[in-house]
Amino acid sequence: MALFVTCLVDTLFPDVGRATVAVLERLGCEVVFPVEQTCCGQAHINTGYHRDAVGLVQKFVTTFEDFEAIVAPSGSCIGSIRHQHSMIAEKAGDGELAARARAVGARAFELSEYLVDQLGITDVGAAYPHTVAYHPTCHSLRALGVGAKPLTLLRSVRGLQLIELPNGDQCCGFGGTFAVKSADTSVAMLTDKMADVLSTGAEVCAASDSSCLMHIGGGLSRLQAGVRTVHLAEILAATEDAAP
Amino acid sequence: MSDAPAPTAPIHAPAGVGMLRGARTFPEAARQALGDPQLRHNLGHATATIREKRANVVAEVADWAELRNAGQAIKSATMATLDEQLVRLEHQVTAAGGVVHWASDADSANEIVARLVRETGSREVVKVKSMATQEIGLNNALAQAGIDAYETDLAELIVQLGDDLPSHILVPAIHRNRAEIRNLFLRAIPGIDPGLTDNPSALAAAARRHLRQRFLSAKVAVSGANFAVAETGTLCVVESEGNGRMCLTLPDTLITVMGIEKVVPSWRDLEVFLQLLPRSSTGERMNPYTSLWTGVHRGDGPRAVHLVLLDNGRTSVLADQVGRDALNCIRCSACLNVCPVYQRTGGHAYGSVYPGPIGAILSPQLTGIEHNASLPYASTLCGACYDVCPVKIDIPSILVHLRAQDVEVKRARRDVPTPEAIAMAAAAWTMTDDRRWSRAQRSSRLARLVGRRRNKARGLIRSLPGPLAAWTVARDAPRPPAETFREWWARERGRDGQRR
Amino acid sequence: MTAREATLARIRAAIGDAPAVPAIPRNYRVRGDLEAGAAADLFAQRVAEYRAAVHHTDPDGIPALIATILASAGDTRAVVPTGLPADWLSEVPSSVSVCTDDGGMTTEHLDAVDVVVTGCAVAIAETGTVVLDAAPDQGRRIITLLPDHHICVVSVDRIVVTVPEGLHRLDPTRPLTMISGPSATSDIELTRVEGVHGPRNLDVIIATAGRTALVRDRSWLVP
């Protein structure tokens, strides 16, 4: 099994990558980190730079096509790999790359999908004695259809008290370059998301995408709201011996 | 003459007429809307109400997924045979005593309608709510021809009386609350009871009194059409208030302006759309009134029936194999009601009669992307629109497709690339090679020094330079960590981390 | 080149020579699986949810019921289509003037009428819809539009369960009006309120089949 750590986690949130490795290895997976990996190209694709993205798709496919399964701690990156990579290759007139991208995409999984669907595990043996509100994130929810899988995993975590996030299925307002291009609208959405998070009274706001968490966490930090943002992988990696 | 376009070349909706182009970019217009707390409250309340109603009536339909699949397929099959369907429709409408007109663009459609009205000798028309006539700016064109057009749908009346612009496909006055509507009526309706309350029933009754005589004396009506059945020549208007029935039944002359994409092949197809549309639109099992007419019905309703088939950029949408699915839209507005962007900015920010997610993919295609370049970016790509679309238009994918078109147009047009294009190209160059990428990561640790006013204790940056400053307006940025993931991996798992 | 030819040429150029035409999957529900009584109950419930008044009777009770509804509404001027069974109005008191529209009543005259009484072509249970098709027991479209009160008699043999069943029974070349409750609007804050331009009051009489089935014979529709 290959870990695609994502460029964002690699550069800014390495703890999320380490937690992903910890969970998978605890469950007996042999985790390989192909160092040739860089970025899935999602930001390029969603901002319209499709020609520039071809090289990134090529790089991703070449790096990962020999692995049986590819796991990433990000719903939106997996969404891009599964649904957009072949389109980018087709557009560039490279049918062969498109076919390879489709094959790789079918074996790429977001962490909760991999744990629940591929490994068949809902209790990962974690312990996390905190109150948690879970933001399901749009791409996990709608592009991948992960449904209740993250919640199922969280419900089995010892000591964790899950508090339902009102309007959870509403977008947080990140949207990649949208957060900068339409900063006012993005912040208006973030404001409502933070109000919903704060209304739960939870200590922690969790999600399975570091990009959304960077956005929500950046806002909560600016408010000094006292609520932490934590990636799903970090919660699933926590144990009684080493609860963070 | 030599540079005249070939007759088959796609044409976009012309500028200077109608309502498809905003004066400002989306982010500029959105900023103003976001600063209006009353507007945000009105929109939040109305969209939350309709979202819940829709969810309830959709949940009770066991075969909703099958209906959506059928709706999508019918529309796609129609577009693939559009020429044939329109010719069949024309034949059947004509056989039933109607007259069919073809309009390549807004100006031509406006000219046809004005001429038809003038030929009746009437100087006024009553109108059923219609997106197509809003799109082409028919009311303005008629005014220039000395013809008064009276909107009769309650929300359109509110917009017209207030000299306002529509902000929603189904409920054009969604940005107004009951108190604002009461004040408008008191100001704009002559002879209105000054004791009028802001109770919606009282406001509806006031509209009824105001328009009654107008309906009874109208000689000409203008409508749109939700559907037109090629097989039978039957036109269909779906409505709630009865103003549609009034316009379709009482006047001597009925002129229907319809986008060419509204045709459906067979009568049977309506059994799908008359289930999908009301539940998606008003959240009702069925809207109060649906009228269906086929040409002229002797002794019942208008004696002269016209159908104006409008292109106005639709064939250029059809020419785009990805973007053409936008033509499948049945104008239910469910995508507006679930869109987190629309809910906060409202419809005016989109600068077009088609707002929200569907507007963001339809308007730029009708006008050409150069004229609505900011609209495809007016979305977080959250996908809520795709989930509710009754004909399964993959709006997020089309948005991404149009963003790419915009990038290519800008690339082709400008000698100097934009800073964004340079950044994207540089990032792609860096990231297609992992050695370059890891060097860049190391140097990006310089960013630890870039952040000004950083909060060292919490590892956060309060202010970023350049275009990223928009991020730190309301959000702290994370400070790059001392060690990237790949550095940690190499240190801890050096052996596994060897290049294979 | 005319606008017609130019538009068709642009369409053909846009879709290309061999456009893929998808097959239409019609595996959605067409038939309702309710027996007649249950369909009528569902119809009554759904119509009532749209704030129409619903009444039940056997065919012999129709005249008395119509008279009662007119009296309680205070209607004094009624219009009926030419093909309405004459006995339906047999118990209407002489204080109510009844006009039969033979196609000649003026708009002004109809606007001064309080109530219209009609039958219907089809009723759809799941959506609480009645459909008028201008048959002799329903009349021109205008007579069910201008009066503020509409009494519609629905014989149970006219009730189907689903929208597809309903449309299947209709002749698309006739002028059709589908009515689901009284006129309404959701234009103010997306809150539904009943009563705008169309009839503000709708009474639906559900009549068990029997004698009415004969007068409802629609064989005349077949050319």
Mean pLDDT rating of chain C: 92
Task: Indicate the structural class of chain B.
Answer: alpha/beta
Class derived from helix and strand content of chain C: alpha/beta
Report the mean per-residue pLDDT of chain B as an integer. Answer: 92
For the CA atoms, what is the radius of gyration of chain C?
Answer: 21 Å
- Annotated CATH homologous superfamily of chain C: NagB/RpiA/CoA transferase-like
CATH C-level category of chain C: Alpha Beta
Q: For the record, what CATH class of the largest domain in chain B applies?
A: Alpha Beta
Helix content of chain C: 10-25%
- Using the alpha-carbon principal axes, give the shape of chain B: globular
Record the strand order, biggest sheet of chain B.
1-10-7-4-2-3
The total count of helices of chain C amounts to 6
Protein architecture, described:
The complex is a heterotrimer of chains A (244), B (500) and C (223). Chain A is an alpha/beta fold and 244 residues long. Chain A has two domains: 2-118; 131-237, Rossmann fold. Chain A has 14 helices and seven strands. Chain A has helices at 7-12, 14-26, 42-47, 50-64, 75-83, 85-91, 95-105, 111-118, 138-144, 149-155, 178-181, 183-200, 210-223, 232-237; strands spanning 2-3, 70-72, 108-110, 131-134, 161-163, 204-207, 228-231. Chain A has a four-stranded parallel β-sheet with strand order 5-4-6-7, with helices on both faces. Chain A has a three-stranded parallel β-sheet with strand order 1-2-3. In chain A, strand 6 (204-207), helix 13 and strand 7 form a beta-alpha-beta unit. Chain A is globular and about 50 Å long. Chain B contains 22 helices and twelve strands. Chain B is α/β, with parallel strands linked by helices and 500 residues long. Chain B folds into two domains: 26-315, NagB/RpiA/CoA transferase-like (Rossmann fold, 3-Layer(aba) Sandwich); 419-492, no CATH class. In chain B, helix 3 (64-80) crosses helix 12 (270-281) and helix 16 packs parallel to helix 18. The model of chain B has no long low-confidence stretch (mean pLDDT 92). Chain C has helices at 3-15, 36-49, 62-73, 107-111, 163-168, 211-215; strands at residues 53-57, 77-81, 97-101, 115-118, 122-124, 129-132, 149-155, 159-160, 176-179, 184-185, 193-194, 201-207. In chain C, the strands form three sheets. Chain C has a six-stranded parallel β-sheet, sandwiched between helices. The radius of gyration of chain C is 21 Å and the shape is globular. The chains are: A alpha/beta (244), B alpha/beta (500), C alpha/beta (223). Chains in contact: A-B, B-C. The interface between A and B is large, with 73 and 75 residues.
